[in-house]
C-alpha cells in the first residue's frame, strides 16, 4: 500500500481517513489527540476513560505490580506505545497500539519510544464507546504479533476473557471469568487475582 503524503498535520482531522501511514509518520504527528495505527490506518482513541474503567485498571495494575516485583518483567500502563512486529511489504512498521496495561519480560524490546515487539501480556479494558470493529481488530493484531496472553475486560458485564496463544500461533479462548472467580495466568503460573476485588 502506498504511503499517504500530505502537508503538515496539526490535528487528527487533517489525516486522510482512507490514507495509509507508517510508524515514521506517526512519530511526526504532534496533535493532542491520542491515536493508534492499525496496519497503517490511524484510529483515534476515545476521550479520557470513565471512572469504572480507571478503578478496574488501578486494581489490576496494583495486583500485577506486586506480583512482578523482582521478576525481571516490567508493567506499563497507557499511554505507552507498543510497536507490534507487523510491517508493510517494504518492511516498514505500520502498527502502533496503546494497551491499557501490558507486561514486557524481554528488556531488549524496550527503548525510549516504548516497546518494539510483542508484550508477554496485554490487558484491554473496554469502554462503552469501543466499537466491535476495534475489538476484533485488536484481537487479530495481538494474535498475529505473538502476544502470549491477552485479557479483555468487560466492565459493564463484570467479566474478563482470557486468550492464550497456542503452539500454532492462534489464540485459544478460556472460560469467561466473573466476579466470583479467581483469575490465573498461563504466562505467570503463580499469579492469582480475586475478581471480586477487581469488580467491586
What would you say this structure looks like, in words?
Helices cover 21% and strands 27% of the residues. With 200 residues, the protein is an alpha+beta fold. It has a single domain, classed as Alpha-Beta Complex (tt1808, chain A), CATH 3.90.1570.10. Strands 3, 6, 9, 10, 11, 12 and 13 form a seven-stranded mixed β-sheet that branches. A four-stranded mixed β-sheet has the order 5-4-8-7, with no helix packed on it. It has a two-stranded antiparallel ribbon with strand order 1-2. The longest helix has 18 residues. The protein is globular, with a radius of gyration of 17 Å. The model has no long low-confidence stretch (mean pLDDT 93).
* Strand/helix succession: HEEHEEEEEEEHEEEEEEH
Compute the number of structural domains.
Answer: 1
Briefly note the structural class of the backbone: alpha+beta
Radius of gyration: 17 Å
Gap from first CA to last CA: 47 Å
Poorly predicted tracts of residues: none
Instruction: Provide the β-strand percentage band.
Output: 25-35%
**Structure summary, number of beta strands:** 15
Classified by CATH, the class is: Alpha Beta
What fold name stands as the CATH topology?
A: tt1808, chain A
Write the layout of secondary structure elements.
Layout: H1 23-28, E1 35-38, E2 41-44, H2 51-68, E3 74-77, E4 82-83, E5 96-97, E6 101-104, E7 110-111, E8 114-116, E9 121-125, H3 132-145, E10 149-154, E11 159-165, E12 171-173, E13 177-178, E14 182-184, E15 192-194, H4 195-198
Parallel strand pairs: 4-8, 9-10
Antiparallel strand pairs: 1-2, 3-6, 4-5, 6-9, 7-8, 10-11, 11-12, 11-13, 14-15
Amino acid at each position: 500500500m502506498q504511503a499517504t503524503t500530505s502537508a503538515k498535520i496539526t490535528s487528527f482531522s487533517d489525516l486522510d481517513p482512507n490514507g495509509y501511514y507508517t510508524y515514521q509518520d506517526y512519530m511526526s504527528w504532534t496533535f493532542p489527540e491520542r491515536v493508534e495505527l492499525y496496519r497503517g490506518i490511524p484510529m483515534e482513541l476515545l476521550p479520557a476513560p470513565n471512572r469504572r474503567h480507571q478503578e478496574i485498571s488501578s486494581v489490576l495494575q496494583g495486583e500485577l505490580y506486586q506480583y512482578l516485583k523482582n521478576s525481571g518483567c516490567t508493567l506499563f500502563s497507557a499511554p505507552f506505545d507498543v510497536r507490534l512486529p507487523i510491517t508493510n511489504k517494504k518492511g516498514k512498521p505500520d502498527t502502533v497500539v496503546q494497551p491499557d496495561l501490558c507486561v514486557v519480560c524481554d528488556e531488549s524490546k524496550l527503548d525510549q519510544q516504548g516497546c518494539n515487539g510483542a508484550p508477554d501480556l496485554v490487558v484491554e479494558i473496554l469502554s462503552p464507546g469501543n466499537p466491535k470493529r476495534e475489538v476484533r481488530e485488536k484481537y487479530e493484531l495481538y494474535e498475529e504479533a505473538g502476544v502470549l496472553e491477552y485479557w479483555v475486560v468487560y466492565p459493564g458485564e463484570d467479566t474478563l476473557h482470557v486468550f492464550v496463544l497456542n503452539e500454532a500461533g492462534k489464540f485459544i479462548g478460556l472460560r469467561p471469568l466473573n466476579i466470583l472467580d479467581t483469575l490465573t495466568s498461563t504466562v505467570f503460573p503463580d499469579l492469582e487475582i480475586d475478581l471480586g476485588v477487581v469488580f467491586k
